[in-house]
Amino acid sequence: MQFKKLAEDVFEDILHSGGYVYIVGGCVRDEVMGIQGENDIDVEVYHLTYQQLYDVLARHGHVNTFGQSFAIMQLDCLPHYDFALPRKEKKTGEKHQDFQVMIDPELSLDKAIQRRDLTMNALMYDYQQGKIIDLCGGIDDIKNRVIRCVNVKTFAEDPLRVLRIAQFVARFDMLVEKRTLQLCKEMVKQHMLDHLSIERVYSEYSKILMAEKPSLGFEFLRTIDALPPYLKALETTHQRLDYHPEGHVFNHTMLVIDVAALTKHKTDHPLWFMWSCLLHDIGKPVVTTKEGHAHGHNEAGVEVFKQVDIITAKKEREYISTMIMYHMHLMNMARNHSRDLSYLRLLKKIDGKVSLNDLICISCCDKLGRGKVAREQYDAFLEFIADKKARLGDRAKPPMINGNDLLEAGFKADKQLKKVLAEAYDLQLQGIDRERILRSLKKKYDKG
Questions:
Q1: What are the residue boundaries of the HD/PDEase domain, all occurrences included (predicted)?
Q2: pTM
Q3: Do the beta carbons of residue 161 and residue 117 sit within 8 Å?
């Protein structure tokens, strides 16, 4: 394995001070799998006390510590490198972080790996010897594309590991070994995942969504009955087979997110875009009739999304809500050969929330997620959009009339002013000039 020159200097200093250096965790796994990228390097240092390790690191830069109980240190001049002492962990509560940590610089390697979650994450790289130590068959599991837990007892102590398996399944296209799969099912059945924070759930779901084939992760969660209610409801929501030959809404959603994974890099906000594709049809269980009609599922989806609390950022929520609301509009406009005015009105509705480009992308993914799409329909849609963009642009036109204009014209500064401004803008889109708009509004409303 290759490391930064400064990192090697620090490693050599640790060795000269009586310590021993092992590289552990995901970076070793990725090395074996041939995955390139900027990864965090987890360094485990044996045979030194907390203070001895601190003193060694301090000779190379400023040391940041993260609590003596965890014995984790970082150098400000060596980002992405974490230095830690070997430790044992004991579960003390139901939450993900409820552990008692016991530092033991002389801990044996056999015992040290028992706190690792999966065999592929239990690999250790011996820096001095320049070789990988594999004590539980992690390399073979990687070659066979199998996800296997290291220790049944210690694995079950951390419910977050179930979601971590889901994102590994999606990222690496691997299968979960039978005993590990059953263990995950039992942990879900015992409601152990209920104690995870929404921040941790959001983080793991986001990793699934950013994988090459995110459907694999959610299919795993479905298999172990760990889907949240707003996704689980999609399984039992049928669709008209003449429109959706792929079957129920969950199948459709999985096809959509896999297509979206191929185009997310073209969007303004790839992660927000993927969340939008995952949630675009969450309103269908609310409104779908026994015949399979789902009129108004976009509006219903916006309401359901209000209860999806794991997404907390305001701008992200606004983006996703807008995408849910308007994900069908462009396709419907193309099919109905809608007038320019409808297109211009849509640009105004999404203005400042979602770009036309991102809305086009989700429209295409939604269309392609139907199992079978006629090429003529898809080409006709792209042709329709290209014509509108060429003639009318891809952004909302700036308003000719603002609030000050209305106040000068005699309108009151009250709640009604916003409504009048919206009417003024719509008249503008219809091609009416500024003076005629003001005259029309004056005539309609009491100026007081």
A1: 245-380
A2: 0.91
A3: yes
- pLDDT digit string, tens, across residues 172-219: 999 999 999 999 999 999 999 999 999 999 999 999 999 999 999 999
Residue tagged 């001095």 (tokens): 128
One domain, residues 431 and 343: no
Summary mean pLDDT of the chain: 92
Give residue for tokens 């056999």. Answer: 110
Distances in Å between the alpha carbon of 445 and those of 46, 420, 440?
80, 9, 9
- Cα(147)–Cα(171) distance, integer angstroms: 12
Contact 80, 39 (CB under 8 A): yes
DSSP class of 212:
S
Q: What is the pLDDT of residues 264-294, one digit of tens each?
A: 999 999 999 999 999 999 999 999 998 888 9
Q: What is the C-alpha separation between 35 and 32, in angstroms, rounded?
A: 8
- Please state the domain count of the chain: 3
pLDDT in tens, 226-241: 999 999 999 999 888 7
* Helix, strand, coil share of the chain (percent; to 5): 55, 10, 35
The torsion defined by the Cα of 344, 348, 351 and 356, in degrees rounded to 10, comes to: -30
Rounded Cα distance between 349 and 396, Å, is 8
134: domain CATH number? Answer: 3.30.460.10
Let me know whether 383 and 420 are in one domain: no
- Whether residue 306 is predicted with pLDDT greater than 90 in this model: the reply is yes
- By DSSP bridging, strand 41-46 and strand 81-84 are parallel
Contact 434, 424 (CB under 8 A): no
Band of residue 93 on the pLDDT scale cut at 50, 70, 90: low
Is the alpha carbon torsion for 408, 411, 412, 416 positive or negative? negative
Place of tokens 């996800």: 147
Domain hosting residue 354, numbered range: 257-392
Q: Which residues pair with 260 in a beta bridge?
A: none
Phi, psi of 106 (to 5 degrees): -105, 15
